[in-house]
Amino acid sequence: MAFPLNDRQLEAVRATEGPVLVIAGAGSGKTRVLTERIAHLVVERGVRPHEILAFTFTNRAAREMKERLEKNNPGITDRLWVGTFHATGVRILRSEGERIGIQRRFSIYDADDSADLVKEILSKQVVMGGMMGSPSAMRDRISRWKNDLMTPEMAAEGASDNIERKVAAVYREYERGLRRANALDFDDLIAKVVELFSVHPEVKERYARRFRYVLVDEFQDTNPIQMALIDALASHHRNLFAVGDDDQSIYSWRGARVDHILNFEELYPGTKVVRLEQNYRSTQTILDAANHVIAHNKGRKGKNLWTDLGKGEKAGLLVSMDEETEAINVLDAVKSLVADGYSPREIAVLYRTNAQSRALEDVFKLGSVPYQIIGGVRFYERMEVRDILAYCKFLANPADDVSLKRIVNVPPRGLGKSTYESLSSMARSNDTTVLEALRTGAHFLATAQKKRVGAFLELVSKLREIAKDSPAPRVVEAIIAETGYKEFLRQNYPDADARIENVDEVVAAAEAYTQGRDDASLAAFLEEIALVADVDSLDDIKGQVTLMTLHNAKGLEYDCVIIAGLEDGLVPHYNSLDTIEELEEERRLFYVGMTRARKRLFLSYANMRRRMGVIEGGSPSRFLAEIPDECVDGAVDSPRSGEGAGDFDELRLPFPGRRGPLQRREPSPTEYEDYSQEEASYAVGMRIFHNDFGRGIVRKVEGSGENLRVTVIFDGGGERKFLAHYAPMRPLV
DNA sequence: TGGTAGAGGCTTTTT
DNA sequence: GCCTCTACCA
Predict the structure, then answer these.
(1) Measured in angstroms, what separates residue A525's CA from nucleotide B8's C1'?
(2) Rounded CA separation A431/A368 (Å)
(3) Which of A324, A402, A466, A686 is deepest in the core (most CB within 10 A)?
(4) Looking at the DSSP assignment, which residues form a beta bridge with residue A56?
(5) Pairing of strands A240-244, A213-216
(6) Is the pLDDT of residue A127 over 60?
(7) A325 near A606, Cβ under 8 Å?
(8) Which residue has the higher pLDDT, A618 or A599?
């Protein structure tokens, strides 16, 4: 990729002074422009790296940008600030936060921690007066307020009804809870910097003077609070360089405003606008398909991508009966691509919702193609991992009541709900932390409880002693050992093996983090993992097919892309059918998915799909009809008309006859055999892996064919008998 | 207090 | 379909 920059790209790189807005179409080389510009600033203009600040959307993007810079200019990134808004916020708050009352060792609450805090608040409310939604829905509402720079007071004032007013009241309590626990949630990592800058203008001025050049990637997905931060940091020199694509704005649900792009020139008078429309990624056919789809959106600046990479092949169409068949067809398509010579690492399978990954994985794990799934139940969201990390957070910050609540009786040590409740309400009325209540208030309790509280406090002080001067991995090990956590897992979970592996993985993560760092402390490790996203750990070194959501695919590219589940209700999603704005965002999401592909694109839908346990009929995504016929190899079934009472039944029945002529075939007999052979061959003594129960050893084999019964003794304890044909089980090699 | 079983809610997307 | 919460019993 050592092509010279084109004229437009050069223009963007060299326009160093004043505000610049780059409208960068998909695949138009925007990352290259960003890195070349930074290099240009340092090498040609003599700017010192620490005077440059660049915001990226993911840590992965930050890492890649640094790597590309280092390649041509070793050492350049040492003092450069490149990171996500959140990481940059933390960096500033660690050194300046105390000015606005944030202690240095604050905890960072992730979405689950925040929801736990909301839950805790709700449980203390006497009467909540009915339907206000789940704790996490409320947390989302609060988050949107925060991202719109709304305080609890403003939220209460602007509330449109009683329910909103009550949620606003919860918001107020939530903020108090965070402060009491010396914790910040994700949004605070940015919001508190904005607050700091407004309370202490001199601090803002210091940073604004320091950063002579501010660069922002994925500008279309910034929200008001991020915009406030950008604006503050660029306020002195006004050398703001924003790169984005209004057609790829897919985060409005997180408060992002495309207006930031559309109104940029008003916000920053004198802006130079550069448009990058030459695409260096995809074939003309893929671009034509994508261009036609996105052209249906009204609210856009409008652009037309072109390429000189040639026409390429038509997009493949996979039509399947249901989601299981779809998964088989997707795996089939992957296999044929591999047979054509594409590396698995150059193939991605994209879908709208994480829930769709299950059906795909069920098939992929029996297939012979290596794969990785990004997202879904994330590693750091697993129960056992969260337990261990809650111990860590609590040790690093004893005021952290949410974490304390999580661990106080895990593993069970006789400090159940009623004991905890009485201690926490004591803490509440005395306005102290729960730990303080444990220390001072235990004399109210019965003797047995007093003893148990004492034992817990002893455990805590022992662990804190260790945490004081040991590196993070040693602390994690001590937590696991001293609490007897693995034993607890073994006794309570049939899949203890997998869970123990996860727990060990936390130690490994701490170990990996510690390598080559000065600060190996628990607090530093916690900060690191609080900010990692799933895409950040995306592994493209091993040759694996990647499965992930369309959102996660933003900013990535692959030779081959398969988009699964292209049905109305999924793309566009049911919940986004109400307004034009929502519908257009769904279209952009589809557009983002299509434009990830360099050479081959497959579009897939199923006629039926299980949703929350119920089988539902679906029709092909309305967006498919927006793709010109000559771009697709095959014909999309026309969406079902709603007329006629009989339609209803048809939706629910697998009518083999109504599959169109270009329907993807069922797997051929040989392929299927190949597929089932793996599950058919079990022998006594063989090691197996079961989805729910983990590893085990085969003790007995009876019957044959579909009636093949396999008895397994699991490593995690327990013996079970399965019908091999149906059980989610496979032999381990 | 803790274990179990059944009910109910949930899934859009994430730093 | 799966996970979490709640109610009830040991």
Answers:
(1) 38
(2) 59
(3) A402
(4) A84
(5) parallel
(6) no
(7) yes
(8) A599
Nearest to A84, CA basis, from A207, A229, A203, A235: A229
d(CA A271, CA A343): 43
DSSP structural state of residue A3: P
Spatial CA neighbour of A464 closest among A104, A105, A34: A105
Give this prediction's pTM.
Answer: 0.81
**Single-letter code of the amino acid located at A21:** L
The tokens for A405 are 């609540």
Q: How far is the CA of A717 from the C1' of B3 (A)?
A: 19
Evaluate the CA torsion angle A123, A128, A132, A138 in order and state its sign: negative
Scanning every strand, the nucleotide with its C1' closest to A115's CA turns out to be: C4
Query: Residues A514, A472: contact at Cβ < 8 Å?
Result: yes
Tell if A414 CB is < 7 Å from nucleic strand B.
yes
Q: How far apart are the first and last CA of chain A?
A: 40
β-strand partners of A690: A694, A729
Question: Is the C-beta atom of A119 closer than 7 angstroms to strand C?
Answer: yes
CA distances A661 to A203, A658, A692, Å, are: 68, 9, 39
Closest CA to A337 of A371, A308, A303: A371
Q: How far apart are CA A340 and CA A327, in angstroms?
A: 20
Rg (CA), chain A: 28
Question: Tokens 């809650």 sit at which residue?
Answer: A390
Could you give the residue numbers annotated as active site of A? 30-31, 217-218, 248, 596
| Å: A408 CA to B3 C1' | 18
Which tokens sit at A374? 């990004």
Query: Is residue A241 within a helix (H) or strand (E), and if so which, with residue range?
Result: strand A240-244
- Of A392, A391, A367, A388, give the one whose Cα is nearest residue A379: A388
Return all residues near A597 (Cβ < 8 A) that are at least 6 apart. Answer: A282, A286, A557, A558, A559, A560, A561
DSSP letter assigned to residue A573: B
Query: How far apart, in whole angstroms, are the C-alpha atoms of residue A219 and residue A321?
Result: 40
pLDDT in tens, A203-241: 999 999 999 999 999 999 999 999 999 999 999 999 999
By the 10 Å C-beta count (0-12 exposed, 13-18 middle, 19+ buried), A587 is classed as: buried
Do A265 and A121 touch, CB atoms closer than 8 A? Answer: no
- Nucleotides on chain B that have an atom closer than 7 A to a protein CB are 1-3, 9-15
- DSSP alpha helices (H): ranges in A380-446? 383-396, 401-407, 417-430, 434-441
Q: How far is CA A259 from CA A105, A225, A227, in A?
A: 37, 14, 11
A600 torsion bin: left (phi>0), alpha (psi -120 to 50), beta (else): beta
Estimate the crossing angle of helix A188-199 against helix A135-147, to 10 degrees: 30
**Longest CA span, chain A:** 81
Calpha distance A250→A346 (Å, rounded): 24
CB A549 within 8 A of CB A592: no
Residue A677 confidence (pLDDT) above 50? no
Nucleotide nearest to A358 (CA to C1'): C1
Are A408 and A423 in contact, with CB atoms under 8 Å apart?
A: no
Q: Is the CB of A613 under 7 A from strand C?
A: yes
Instruction: Name residue, tokens 């206000």.
Output: A132
- Using the CB atom, is residue A541 less than 7 Å from strand B? no
Which residue type occupies A71? K
Q: From the CA of A112, how many Å to the C1' of C3?
A: 15
A339: exposed, middle or buried (C-beta count within 10 Å: 0-12, 13-18, 19+)? exposed
Q: Are strands A608-611 and A614-617 parallel, antiparallel or unpaired?
A: antiparallel
Mean pLDDT calculated for residue range A63-79: 90
Phi, psi of A575 (to 5 degrees): -75, 0
Return the residue matching tokens 């949410």.
A402
